[in-house]
Design brief:
The complex is a heterodimer of chains A (116) and B (111).
Chain A: E1 5-7, E2 10-13, E3 19-24, E4 31-37, E5 43-50, E6 53-57, E7 65-68, E8 75-79, E9 88-95, E10 105-107, E11 111-115
Parallel strand pairs in A: 2-11
Antiparallel strand pairs in A: 1-3, 3-8, 4-5, 4-9, 5-6, 7-8, 9-10, 9-11
Chain B: E1 3-5, E2 10-14, E3 19-21, E4 24-26, E5 33-39, E6 46-52, E7 59-61, E8 64-69, E9 74-79, E10 88-95, E11 99-101, E12 105-110
């Protein structure tokens, strides 16, 4: 069974520090996503990425956030200067396609980010 | 606009009772996909089912069953003979060009 892998599973960082959350999507997938879930709340879309560029982003995804696929296998989410309200579970997902293409979409197990 | 509504915030049932989790969605797309995920206390999202908009057949998998009705834009999830291990938050999601999640239903099964 293919799976999306996220590291680390838990990250604690001081306010103002930069963090990089890492994801290894499924190898033949083309679309990549980051989602965020603040404790006890719904899962919120942050950004989608296709063909080495951002295809869509939400209003949450401001200038503090960036994504990158540095080496063709990893997919990273960087938060430049973390705030307390960035504390959340961050999920990476990948899929073969969207829309009319039958999507096999998989989520990673999440990275719990705690900003102190 | 794409939207998923899970009106039930919390449900408690006694073990062995049946329970139905409601999901209503909105979309203008003619082709879309609906998902249910389980989120146990450990936090990961566990895939339960995927259904495309052209397939309205109901599905049963063990104690789980899903009722998809396009006429009412609903994709309800029933757990038969609930067990304590079913306690979790359950999310319904719509996939268009991205996933749209409902707010989740927290299910507690009391022994």
């Amino acid at each position: 069974e293919p799976e999306v892998t996220q590291t680390p599973s838990h990250q604690v960082t001081q306010m103002g520090q930069e963090v990089i959350l890492r994801c290894v999507p499924i190898s033949n997938h083309l679309y990549f996503y980051w989602y965020r879930q603040i404790l006890g709340q719904k899962v919120e879309f942050l950004v989608s990425f296709y063909n080495n560029e951002i295809s869509e982003k939400s209003e949450i995804f401001d200038d503090q956030f960036s994504v990158e696929r540095p080496d063709g296998s990893n997919f990273t989410l960087k938060i430049r200067s973390t705030k307390l309200e960035d504390s959340a579970m961050y999920f990476c997902a990948s899929s073969e396609g969207t829309g009319a293409v039958l999507p096999e979409a998989f989520f990673g197990q999440g990275t719990r980010l705690t900003v102190v | 606009a794409q939207k998923v509504t899970q009106a039930q915030t919390e449900i408690s049932v006694v073990e062995k009772e049946d329970v139905t989790l409601d999901c209503v969605y909105e979309t203008r797309d003619t082709t879309y996909y609906l998902f249910w995920y389980k989120q146990p206390p450990s936090g990961e999202l566990v895939f339960l089912i995927r259904r495309n908009s052209f397939d309205e057949q109901n599905e049963i998998s063990g104690r789980y069953s899903w009722n998809f009705q396009k006429s009412t834009s609903s994709f309800n999830f029933t757990i038969t003979a609930s067990q304590v291990v079913d306690s979790a938050v359950y999310f319904c999601a719509l996939l268009g060009n991205q996933f749209y999640f409902g707010t989740g239903t927290s299910l507690t099964v009391i022994p």
